[in-house]
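This part of the workshop introduces the protein records we will be handling. The question running through the whole workshop is how a given chain folds. To make this concrete, we reproduce a full record directly below:
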Amino acid sequence: MRFYRNNWFRIGAIFFVLIAFGMLFWGNRVSVTQRLLIASLMALLLHQYEEYEWPGGAPIVINRVFYGEPTDYRRYPGNWQSIMLVNTLAYIPYLAAIIWPTWYWLGIGTMFFNLFQFLGHAFKMNFGMKTWYNPGLATVIVLMMPISIAYWVHIWPIVGGWSWGLGIIALVVMLIVTVILPVQLLKSRTTDAVIPERQIRQFNWVKKAAAIRRN
């Protein structure tokens, strides 16, 4: 468990490469809907790599900027254990949407989740850091949002209003189960699952490099 906790985002990058090779050779065997859903999962894996490996620093952004924790941001409210759970639990609905592509409401929910990522990174985190970039923003803009828009355009003639309404409900459930509950249930100011020092160094580097300078 400790190995996975320290390396899940690197393992995710390996799965990204494997999926890319699979799509290169066998991508024509799946429907357009599934290709878009697979592309969304791949974008999520790259997004997590950007957040936690290169450039990294996202855990500090989340605790200090998103949750507003001024002092114990290496362990509260998110810690290294809950962060791992938050990110890896997200794989479940993304994979389920691929396996059952006609559950359009679920696919819509995952794409709304991508939109939630965009709003958080492009506005909340940038404004809080006073920067033009934060870890995860690039993949949100370049991959997650274009893929989501392509999916919505693709299914628009197929689905009705109920699917969109259920997609919103699916988003809310995803946020509760994969984000809110792991953080709230595991939050502790005395936990030993401390966010690594490297994440602080990367956060400081990103904040300095991407600072909005006013003359």
Remarks:
- The radius of gyration is 18 Å.
